[in-house]
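Table S2 (continued). Query chain:
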Amino acid sequence: MPDPKKQITKARIAMQIHHPFFGYLAASLEPTEVKDLNPPTMATNGKSLFYHPDFVMEQSLGELAGTIAHEIGHVILNHLWRRQSREPKRWNIAADYADNHLVLQDGFILPKGVLIDAQYDDMSVEQIYNELPVQVVDASMTLDSHDEWGKGGNGNGDGKDAQGNLPEDIQQQWQERVAQAVTQARMRGSVPAHIQTLVDELLQPKLDWKSVLQDMVSSCAKSDFCLMPPNKKHLHRGIYLPGMTGTEIRIAVAIDSSGSISDDDAQMFLSEVQGICEAYDDYTIWLFIADSRIHYRAELHLGDPLPKMVPGRGGTDFREPLKEAANLPITSLVYFTDMDGTFPDREPFFPVIWIATTRLDAPWGQVIRYPKDRK
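Corresponding output:
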């Protein structure tokens, strides 16, 4: 007998192969059959992937993957949280226009008849909402059910607070997942520009930068798992996940020591490197301190001291540290800098995480803004 859950599994495997960013995030939603779903397609509340079994079996594998991506899109575009006091049916239609454009940009196939209109391409859901005719109220025009938004958020009724907002911990979890998904996708190849732009908007400045950094580094780390003790990070949500023991990272870290970096920032960079060291049971960190050239090199292991001074203060050139890092057995490189320097012509094969003290951007890699109130 046909099994809808197996079809969803096949679609998610295909997503992991061909659309690694969405494929990674798809694993975060638990498939849950709902036979009275309206419309009888799919839905999500940020925790579950609700589905009508007939819809799943009627779709091609490509259309099913596209619909799953559509559900993920609603979450990562924050449609579940951004409606506020706007008219729900009109908002739902605007959300589908924005979501479908994102999914199609990534090369997915969507079922026939979904809401697509080029005039709304690259608009935010709020902009589309304002452009839509007021009389647009037919909820059946949307691909999926939005009635599940907010349900089951924290185990108390519909999961919303008195203002109708979903709990912040679910938003936080998804912001962390998005950061991890970009890292995983980059390890499988390049991340499309529209996804990178979306991620930058999602993560800055809403998510604590240290959480983003640790999650991105950890996602590349070699780890052993055990059932006891459980992972304390998720205990407050009543979720018992395996804990990590023997977590080992092998990364390169570069510190910008050019003239545009203040002494306070240089020392803060060193303290953040110390924080990375203290977060793991075992590590190999290749540390570079460089301006236009490398002035300091070290291979650091557990217990090794960090330098107390940051030599340099010339111009900024990122090429030499990245070139040397390419010859090391690393999973990623973390670069503390103000981003004002010369970049290599080509993106390296390993993920680069830029910790930036300014609003300048990198031509590639994941940029995390160092907070202005870091003192």
